[in-house]
Design a protein that fits this description.
The protein has 264 residues and is an alpha/beta fold. It has 11 helices and 5 strands. It has 2 domains: 134 residues, Nucleotidyltransferase, domain 5; 122 residues, Helix Hairpins (Orthogonal Bundle). α7 runs antiparallel to α11. The protein is elongated, with a radius of gyration of 30 Å.
């Protein structure tokens, strides 16, 4: 046991004097680590993608003065490793997966496994050193994250609106002619309350007007005009589904998603 410990210690002393590369293949739950010294593999192991696993990796990294670290940017999975390395001010190479595949395709990816991928990355950095990743400030990363979230929310909003348009063609297509611009909180609130022409025709006109007056910016006269138009459209409508159809429930769920997104 003592002899084994001395061998490990000697190995790390040697690693500190030579070029030491840590190739890391990151997946959803674990990461495979391959350590190469001057192009020769000296160790490999798997770690969990949590503080326990990352601290195990850190223990090995601290044994080397200037470790070279390389891993692929695998989206949300590699972000945790990246944040941990940034926290400890460790520089690294973060490869685009397609670029890494292109640079290692000749003789490395014949038998692809997570364990071998870590070896391939370490070998790539040992033989053809890649440029270190630029470490962005925390403020810049937060700004970019906000931008991505906004873009995704905008994309989801457009997608939901397109879905709603298709759904309305089955339930009450004529309602799209109720307003000049069939968008916004008031419009979707009306469609949510009256998703089917039968529901309009079963509701007293006075109750429809009262509902409309409860919406933002709609007074008594405007509520009366919209109610008259809504009833007229309901009378000529020919929906493809009944008022108790699953399509109605799906439409209401989609509208609630739209209203929640627009409030945010």
């Amino acid at each position: 046991m003592k002899e084994a410990h001395l061998q490990v210690k000697r190995r790390f002393i040697l690693m500190d004097l030579l070029k030491t590369v840590f190739g890391i293949d990151v997946s959803s739950r674990k990461s495979n680590v391959c350590i190469m010294v001057n192009g020769q593999k000296v160790n490999d192991y798997a770690i969990s993608n949590d503080m326990v696993g990352f601290n195990q990796l850190l223990g090995d990294l601290k044994q080397v003065t200037k470790p070279q670290i390389i891993f692929e940017a695998t989206g949300v999975y590699s972000r945790r490793l990246q944040a941990f390395l940034d926290m400890h001010e460790l520089r690294y190479v973060m490869m685009n997966p397609l670029e890494a595949k292109r640079k290692t395709k000749d003789d490395l990816h014949q038998n692809k496994t997570d364990k071998l991928d870590a070896l391939y990355l370490a070998k790539l950095q040992s033989e053809h050193p890649q440029r270190l990743a630029y470490v962005q400030s925390e403020e810049y990363q937060e700004l970019m994250a906000n931008n991505r979230i906004y873009e995704q929310a905008s994309h989801d909003l457009i997608t939901n609106r397109n879905r709603l348009h298709k759904a309305i063609q089955l339930t009450f297509p004529e309602i799209e002619h109720l307003m000049v611009n069939p968008i916004g909180k008031n419009y979707w609130s009306i469609v949510l309350r009256f998703p089917h022409p039968d529901i309009v025709l079963e509701t007293k006109e006075a109750d429809i007007i009262d509902f409309l007056k409860g919406l933002t910016g709609i007074g008594k006269k405007r509520a009366n005009d919209i109610a008259q138009s809504l009833i007229r459209l309901a009378k000529v409508a020919c929906p493809a589904v009944k008022k108790n159809s699953a399509h109605i429930r799906g439409l209401k769920m989609a509208i609630n998603n739209i209203l929640s997104a627009e409030e945010e």
